[in-house]
Amino acid sequence: MANEQKKSTFFGGVAILAMGVVVVKIIGALYKIPLANILGEEGNGYFMSAYSIYSVLLTISTGGLPVALSKSVSEAHALGRVNQERQIFRVGFASFFCLGLVSCLIMLFGAGAITELQGNSGAKYAALTLAPAVFFVCCVSSIRGYAQGQGNMVPTSVSQIIEALGKLVIGLACASLFFQFADKAAAFPLYAGGEPLQLSAAGAILGVTVGSGLSLAYLVVSHTRRSRLDTRKGSDRAEEGGAILKKLVQVAIPITISASVVPIVNFIDSAIVQNRLQDALALAEREASSLYGNYSAVTNLYALPSALIAPFTAALIPAIAAATARRQEKEAAHVSESALRVAMLLACPMGFGLSALSTPIVQMLYPGYRAEIAGPILMILGITSIATCVMLLCNSILQASNFVNLPILVIAVGGVLKLVVNYVLVGIESINVLGAAVGTACCFGTAAILDLLLIRRALPSPPSYRRVFVKPLIASAVMGLGAWAVQGLFAPIVGNTLSTILGVMTGVVIYLALVLALRAISKEDLSLMPKGDKIAKILKIQ
Question: Which of 139, 167, 201, 235 is the right S-S partner for 47, CB 3.0 to 4.6 Å?
């Protein structure tokens, strides 16, 4: 009975994070899709170039420490070491504060040189605007990690929603205002010499900075309130700060290296793509930025499945770590397989759906973009999103099972492959920016396969891949064909937008029917989720 409650706690945490992520993704769509249309292909290239710099510094600062903090707090919490929990947070927050400050200064003073290295000097103003966000998010991550380690996922979800709302309201407003009043914006020393599209991208990215600042303010107030209400009296003796920091660093460094590979590869990728378009194909910087803007616009859609899987990775590590601390290996193995199975039931249909309706989706959401360029990119990235989800989940399982170095090797192999493929294919005129999508597919496809092989070899009780993958893939493939057929049939009659919506709705119905018919989800799976028994009874799942 206790074990079932612990498993339900894990999936309860996933449910809370998942609800938050769904809200955040809806807000994000309301932000990113109109924003991409406001900025256009060239402006979106400036925006995403700056964001890739931010992602590198942010991941280096927060890629491993939040996981290490969450893992350490979860272990102390499971063993009832109250004083140790609090000491871990104090040490962790101080570390985050310092890392965030250093990263902010690097981005602030190095923006010009870094964007020139990328081959997109016009992104400098957006990079400067984004610099304070690195500091804010570092502090945010420490509080989120502490709460998650205690099994409290609410602060993370609420703060994510606040951050997303800040992006939406401030970002869209400033993107338009900075473009309309570029001459006045350029009067500020930070934006001196900027052109309207470049400053519009800076205004759009101001929403990210303000949103992260508001998120931090909420978390500080929330954490202070919870600390006052926490009346637990600890009898344990906490370790010295230096010893805790050493342990955090030992866990964080491998995870940070693993997590940093993707954003570093993406940053190098943006530089290779834009420079190769200019050097090999003799395109002007603005045209290169425009093509990169098409690629970047559809990567927002490609990122949706992995973003919805993020709650599983966030809750998985502390859950497995706590089970391991209690020496309950079977519980850890069961949670791992259940998380993989449920996550694939979500990721597979999204990936196949994006691929099957790639060009119609681009035409519907990004009417100002070149669908003949962006559509094929999304078709490749849609299927790739499934491999990305697999890699993220497998990395979390390996890290939580104390195999923290294996994911580093895996993603490094995939990253090198991506850079080589990109360099070769982007330089071919008939392929150009589509080569970046092929490189991404090679990277994450290879990483996912290697991760699955490692889990099979490394863990004493690996998940059954047949139960995890076969039925969701069959149902998703049939769903994709159905959605594609309906959209193609009705497009000449009702137009692209309505036919695409009809295709999506048809796909949802087909997928749900096949999941039930194939028994792709079991009563046991649903019993691990909040209200799962009632859902199983309604759907008559045995």
Answer: 201
Burial class (CB in 10 A: 0-12, 13-18, 19+), 232: exposed
Which among 433, 463, 493 is the end of a domain? 463
Looking at the domain assignment, is residue 430 inside a domain? yes
CA distance 193 to 257: 37
- Is residue 235 assigned to a domain? no
Cβ(14)–Cβ(311) below 8 Å: yes
> Which of 148, 146, 528 has its CA nearest to residue 319?
148
Nearest to 352 by CA among 379, 330, 370: 379
Q: What whole-number distance in Å separates Cα of residue 189 and Cα of residue 180?
A: 18
Q: Is residue 237 part of a domain?
A: no
In a domain, 503, yes or no: yes
Which residues have CB under 8 Å from 440's CB, separation 6+? 380, 381, 384, 418
Residue 354 dihedral angles phi and psi, to the nearest 5°: -60, -40
- Which residue type sits at 277? L
CA 244, CA 250: separation in Å to the nearest integer?
Answer: 10
How does pLDDT run across 100-142, given as a tens digit for each residue? 899 899 988 998 899 888 888 888 999 999 899 989 988 988 8
Maximum separation of any 2 CA atoms in the chain, in Å: 73
Same-domain check for residues 287 and 337: yes
The overall average pLDDT reported for the chain is 83
Helices (H) and strands (E) in the chain, counts: 20, 0
CB atoms within 10 A of CB 470: 14
Quote the pLDDT of residue 329. Answer: 66
Which residues touch 445 (CB under 8 Å, ≥6 apart)? 384, 387, 414
Asked whether residue 186 falls in the same domain as residue 98, the answer is: yes
Euclidean distance between CA atoms 308 and 513, whole angstroms:
22
The backbone region for 402, taken as left when phi is positive above 0, alpha when psi lies in -120 to 50, beta otherwise, is left
- pLDDT at position 513: 92
Q: How far is CA 151 from CA 6, 10, 11, 220, 303, in A?
A: 10, 8, 11, 18, 26
CB neighbourhood size of 279 (10 A): 12
Which tokens in the block code for residue 15? 């449910």
Domain residues for 70? 2-229+245-463
- Which tokens go with 44? 């979106």
Q: Among all chains, which residue has been given the structure tokens 């793509």?
A: 273
Distance of CA 72 to the CA centre of its chain: 23
Q: Where does residue 521 fall: left (phi above 0), alpha (psi -120 to 50 degrees), or beta otherwise?
A: beta
What's the whole-model pTM score? 0.75
Nearest alpha-carbon partner for 372 in 291, 464, 283, 491: 291
DSSP labels, 113-163: HHHHHHT-GGGHHHHHHHHHHHHHHHHHHHHHHHHHHTT--HHHHHHHHHH
- CA nearest neighbour of 68 among 220, 252, 233: 252
Query: What are the tokens at 321?
Result: 């770590």
Which DSSP state fits 191? G
Q: Write the DSSP symbol of residue 468.
A: I
